[in-house]
Amino acid sequence: MTIAIIGAGLTGASAAAELREQGYDGDIVLVGAEPHAPYERPPLSKDILLGKGTAADAAAKDEGWYADNGVELITGTRVTALDTAARTFEVDGRTISYDDLLIATGATSRHLPMADESGVPVAYLRTVEESEELKQHLGGSLLIVGAGWIGLEVASAARAAGGAVTVVESAPLPLVGAIGEDMARVFADLHREHGVDLHLDTSLTTLEQDEGGTRAVLSDGTEVRPDLVLVAIGAVPDTALAEAAGLEVDHGILVDARLRTSDPHVYAAGDVAHHDHPELGRLRVEHWDTAIKQGQHAARSMLGGEEPYARQPYFFTDQYDLGMEYVGHLGREGYDEIVVRGDHASRVLNAVMISDGTVVAAMHTNDWDATDHLRAWLGRDATDRLRDTSVALADTFEG
């Protein structure tokens, strides 16, 4: 029996490891487009930029793990064709047959045509090479388009390196879609206090090269002269192979609760998977924890597991002296009530977000004992005790 994995990122590596953990002794083929063994992406905008880690530190597995565990690792090449009827794919001049297949092709940076066509120095951040190149420019003048997780983490690293940073964001607050207005203000205040020139409700209207170098004009009239422009406006799932093979695709590869695609022998997980979550409905999650956990779950499903993937999303960020962990999912409806313990001044706080009386998401900043308690509240009806901020979070559970 052969199980093939297309996409040698963290999801693919996690799936391969789980197959062996579960006792699968058949062939495993793991194919990746990048010229590296699988690695974790969070360090690209954190430790590597801050000089606290290297690309080698980001490796998903030790160098010899794949050979030691009988995993054929093929890197630096793309699968050129997938035939789901014949259960074969083409890669590097070979035709490889599979019994079951996992697609874990991830996502690519969303590009900004205005920037790409401007002729000015433009960067994106998705790969080790891009991170190492960006690190060389952090001490200069940086314009960041997009105040999402990548944009803000790079802003933090650049300020630590002594760089001048301007961030432009079209939304009224950074991260507002992910964490809501109340907590988004924490991050807006954080970056402004650290000297970031943050322009919200603002767009980039002009980007050009003139005799003075790069000239950028924002919709609020501000003119910026950056050495480099970083575009950090999100990611696009890499569905090209799946689409060409006739799999159902809609904002990602459509998978059922077990992570199976429209073909019963093909699964998808990680950034590329648009998952039918049993509690949250359709969603696609681009975070480290989901890459690991969905990779592991897909492996178990391919071995006959019937359990749905029901884990709630989790993500984290480190910016300046602030660390944050978040669990749950707000969705388009957001929340109609928020309960905050702690205070904004010290930024040691936790928050529980409630919709129609049910806890849908929660997060903390610098409150490291809170995570397990916050996760335990997900999906529960909020109580008066939870809402009473004079009661410690750990003591809010009744019975």
UniProtKB/TrEMBL annotation:
Superkingdom assignment: Bacteria
Entry's Gene Ontology molecular function annotations: oxidoreductase activity, acting on NAD(P)H
GO cellular component: cytoplasm
UniProt KW keywords: FAD, Flavoprotein, Oxidoreductase
One family name in Pfam for this protein: Reductase_C
Domain Reductase C-terminal: 314-394
Cofactor: FAD
Domain annotation FAD/NAD(P)-binding: ranges: 2-295
UniProt xrefs under InterPro entries: FAD-oxidoreductase/Apoptosis, FAD/NAD-bd_sf, FAD/NAD-binding_dom, FAD/NAD-linked_Rdtase_dimer_sf, Reductase_C
Protein name (Swiss-Prot/TrEMBL): NAD(P)/FAD-dependent oxidoreductase
Lineage: Bacteria, Bacillati, Actinomycetota, Actinomycetes, Micrococcales
